[in-house]
Automatic annotation (TrEMBL):
Transmembrane spans: 6-30, 42-62, 68-85, 97-117, 123-140
Name of protein: Mur ligase family protein
Superkingdom of origin: Bacteria
Keyword field: ATP-binding, Ligase, Membrane, Nucleotide-binding, Transmembrane, Transmembrane helix
Naturally occurring in which organism (per UniProt): Campylobacter hominis (strain ATCC BAA-381 / DSM 21671 / CCUG 45161 / LMG 19568 / NCTC 13146 / CH001A)
Occurrences of domain Mur ligase central (ranges): 166-336
């Protein structure tokens, strides 16, 4: 017969495991395949998923197992709270998360009551989770379909809206923000917020934020698998498409550059396409409807003051943004602005007011130290370009980096060699690439930071006035 302690243990175990599961699912957009095949902290699954389940079932066959399990779960909750407290990306109690816990509570109570009436000796642990995820995912799919139709109807009621869709392996957000700044004085322009680039994120932005008097909507489109860009393109049907530089970003999902290229080029499937601005890495040829934008650059220089850019069509532009790769991003924006009728003088004037996007080669001067925040730059080419940018700085150069998070061992080895050539002090955050980078960097330069909460303290102790400090990429604690 079941006693009160059995029920308490049952609910404690279910909600502890449920809390862990929904936390990691939220990190990976609620995709089970990603937390199974692409999770870089597998020990967490053992500690917070498998271990409590094993202890739960072991207690069923142990004398006084219910008392032992209760003590274990109290300790487990303390550890779970401490673990969550140290995360830099904690669980956000969105409407979806609240619905998940509501479903979990309902099915847990339903099963517990049912089995008690049946005079069962044990309560099933997996059934509440199976039912919760089945009903939760069905409900979310139904809601997503409803919001999809709402956004679709809204766009249908805005026939004069010009949609510009931007995709690339890297640089999407910078291009989006630069283009917005070049266009905003001449048009009523809206762009997707922050780094929102999924279909659901775009749909939400349209439903909640897109005003009916908007003339141009700039949407960033990202992908983790073949078909993602096509899905966004079929929904938006953009008149202008920009396909930026294609590289090995997210190679672990796509498996090859060819797959990445094919996915990005799904943008060209729009049935309203008027013109496409393409990077040469798309391998497409220029014609009446395609412009290869990086080939339109005549000359440029990039240093810690900014970028001077000269186009083949004669425009001379200066912008206080960093990174030679941003010359190509800026060139794409200039060509689109010209395509939309903005004259060269106005473009040059607006370009002078451009600033680096937050966390993307953003200059910060504080306490007599030159800080460059490039923590949202996570690809090999972009990271190496930022190192070349600072290599001629006269005083000490300090870098804080986890390496390339979504990349290969070979990429991180190349990065490590480059870092060792340029920087005087190297702080490696996290364990993911510590061994690979450490093998390529002079040990006398190295500091390993396992606990990111100690970073400010370590920086204060190890750096001094006139140092240049580069934050190169970042990784949340679950990476």
């Amino acid at each position: 017969m079941l006693n009160i302690l059995n029920f308490i243990n049952y609910f404690l175990c279910i909600f502890a495991v449920g809390f862990y599961l929904i936390t990691v699912l939220q990190w990976f957009s609620y995709k089970f395949e990603r937390i199974i095949f692409h999770f870089t902290k597998p020990l967490w699954h053992i500690y917070f998923l498998f271990f409590p389940v094993i202890i739960y079932f072991a207690s069923l066959f142990t004398k006084n197992g219910d008392k032992f399990l209760f003590v274990f779960l109290v300790v487990f909750y303390i550890l779970l709270i401490l673990w969550h407290k140290k995360l830099d990306k904690k669980l956000v109690f969105t409407a979806r998360v609240k619905r998940f816990f509501a479903f979990l509570a309902f099915f847990s109570i339903l099963i517990a009551v049912s089995f008690n009436l049946l005079k069962a000796d044990n309560l099933p642990l997996f059934s509440p989770f199976i039912l919760t995820f089945l009903f939760s995912y069905a409900y979310e799919k139904k809601e997503a379909n409803k919001f999809y139709k709402m956004a679709q109807k809204k766009l249908a009621n805005m026939p004069d809206l010009l949609i510009i869709q931007i995709t690339a392996s890297f640089g999407k957000t910078s291009i989006k923000n630069f283009l917005f700044e070049l266009l905003k004085d001449d048009f009523k322009v809206q762009k997707t917020p922050r780094s929102v680039n999924t279909l659901n994120g775009i749909i939400r932005d349209i439903n909640e934020n897109l005003s009916y008097d908007t003339k141009i909507y700039i949407a960033e489109a990202g992908a983790r698998k073949n078909g993602d860009i096509k899905e966004i393109t079929q929904f938006l049907n953009p008149q202008i498409v920009l396909v930026g530089e294609i590289g090995a970003q997210h190679i672990e999902y796509f498996k090859s550059i060819e797959n990445i290229r094919a996915t990005k080029l799904e943008s060209l499937s729009s049935n309203r396409l008027k013109h496409a601005f393409l990077h040469s890495t798309t391998l497409l040829k220029e014609n009446e409807t395609n412009t290869i934008y990086d080939k339109q650059i005549a000359n440029f220089t990039a240093n810690l003051d900014g970028i001077k850019l000269e186009m083949k069509s004669g425009e001379k532009i200066f912008a206080e943004i960093l990174g030679d790769f941003n010359a190509q991003n800026l060139a794409a924006c200039i060509l689109i602005a010209k395509f939309l009728g903005i004259n060269a003088e106005k473009i040059a004037k607006n370009a002078k007011n451009l600033h680096s996007v937050e966390h993307r080669l953003q200059k910060i001067m504080t306490n007599e130290k030159f800080i460059i925040d490039d923590s949202f730059n996570g690809n090999l080419k972009g990271m190496c370009a930022s190192y070349d940018l600072v290599k001629n700085y006269k005083s000490r150069k300090v870098i804080i980096t986890p390496g390339i998070v979504e990349g290969t061992k070979e990429m991180n080895e190349i990065l490590g060699i480059k870092i060792n050539e340029i920087f005087d002090l190297v702080m490696i955050t996290g364990d993911l690439n510590a061994e690979i980078l450490g093998a390529k960097i002079d040990p006398k330069k190295l500091i390993f930071i396992k606990d990111k909460s100690k970073m400010i303290e370590i920086l204060g102790a190890e750096t001094k006035a006139d140092d240049l400090i580069l934050f190169s990429n970042d990784a949340p604690s679950f990476i």
